[in-house]
Structures are given as structure tokens and as C-alpha cells.
Amino acid sequence: MHSAQRGISCLYLCSLVSAHCFNIGLTIHIVNIILGRSVALADEADEHRCSADLLIRYDDDPFQLKMMMMTEQPAAEEKQPAKNSKERQFKGLSLTERKQLRREKLIEAGIEAYGTHGFFSVTVKDICNEAKLTERYFYESFKKSENLFQTIFLKLIDELQQNVMQAIMQASSDPKKMIEAGLTALLTTLKDNPQMARIIYIDAMLVQELHNQATIHETMSRFDRMIHAFVMLMMPNIGRSEREISLVATGLNGYVTQIAIRWVMSGFKQSMDEILSSCSIVFLSLLQTFSQHEPSVKK
After folding, report:
1. Whole-number Å distance between alpha carbons of 227 and 133
2. What is the phi-psi region of residue 92: left when phi exceeds 0, alpha when psi lies from -120 to 50, beta otherwise?
3. What is the pLDDT of residue 47?
């Protein structure tokens, strides 16, 4: 997972835990799952003490905690290109700023073009026409169309995941309400943004470059970890092994993904309520099954 993506996940997860959980050990444990780290707490004792200190320090001020986690990025990510004071200004913008602006225009043009016509029906020239830039500026930022598509895909995945996590964060502590809030946010985001939906759930599955670079696999793993953490948040005392919860999370992710793909490909013909009900069934069944067996599993 990219470091920026880890920061976003950590931000929302800590917000979740602040609202629903007061166990420092569990909090750190869940954060580690989202970040894809080892679930063995003892192996990272020093890091956990540091995280615990952070959570205790900002326990009375969740907003400060969120802001801290938002700005807590690895050193490599913090290094932004230094603005060269000697760069020639044009319309008040430096060369670096103009390049960044052109890159953002290409990304927005790509979302419009790929989301409307599909990746395989759009050329570099089409993107440039949409962005109102010459083709040489495309290659200033991207080597080929697949690189632009990958950038767009990851950007949209971040937005989708943030919406889901934020909805769960703002829901009540009742597990059923959390399930409804998370799934509603997912489905609403897709229906309200058909271009995003097409790029993520149709074209991305067909672009071989994303598979070659393991982008699809890593993205699915991110949602696996989010669901894993969500299960632990709903049932912090669950008497199941980490491996079993991880496998169940992968299954839940695949189930919802396939329903989403079918819904998007149909042009959202089925009602939101029907799709929400279909997605909720397995989560509610999981909640019921794990709750029934939890006392008997504990030693």
C-alpha cells in the first residue's frame, strides 16, 4: 500500500476507534491490521508504546488525534519537491506549479473520458483534447495511458474508501447501524458517481497493466483489511483466530464486489434498497453466527 493511502486509512480508523472503542491495545491492534502489519503485538512492542502514547495524549481531543494521524507520513512521503525561487514565473506560477496543474487537468480529463467511454475506447489524443493540452504535456506526466489510468484508479479507490470509513465513523456504535452506514455509503458513492463506478468496477478489471503491477490485488487487500478491522470493531472480544477473520473478510469483500460489478454493469437498474439488502445479508449473518458461537469458543 502506498504510504499516503496508509495515512488516510489510519486517520479514519483512529477516528472510528475514538468513537467506539476505549481499549488502547485493541486500538493499536486494529490499526496494524489496516496498515497490513503483523498481527502479533509482541513483535512490535516499541512501536505500540509509541502509538499508545499518541492515543493517550490526544484522547480528550479526537480532532487533534485525527489531524496528527493525517500529517503522520513516512519521511519519503513528506519530501515534497522544493519550490525553486529562481524558476521563471508565468502568470504567477512557477514551472513546477504549472506542471502539477497540467497533471491535475489530465487526471480530471481521464476520469471524464475513461468513465464515459471506457479505457479501451479512449486515446492519448482524446485525453489531451478533453484537458485542452497538447500531447507533449501528456508525456510530461505519464509514460503511457495505462499509467494515467492507474493514477486515476488509485485516486478513486481512496475516495471510495474514505467515504465508507467516514460513514462508519459517524454511525452509532450499534453493529447493525454500522453495517448499514458503511454499505449505504459505498453504494451511494457509486450510484452518484457513475464514472467512478465504471472505472473501478468495469475497466480496472480489464486493464492488464493493473494486474501486472499487482494494483488490483493490493487494492482488494486494502478492503480486506478494512473489513477485517470493521469486524474487530463490531466484536472486540471475538473468540476467533486472526487467520479465520482474515479469510472471512476476504469472502465478504469478494461478495460485495461481485454484487457491485453486476449493479454497475446493469446501469444501476435494481433499486438501492434491493442491492443494500443483498449486501447486508452476509454481514448480518456473520454478526449473528459469530455472536452465537463467541462464548463457546472462548477458553
Report:
1. 41
2. left
3. 41
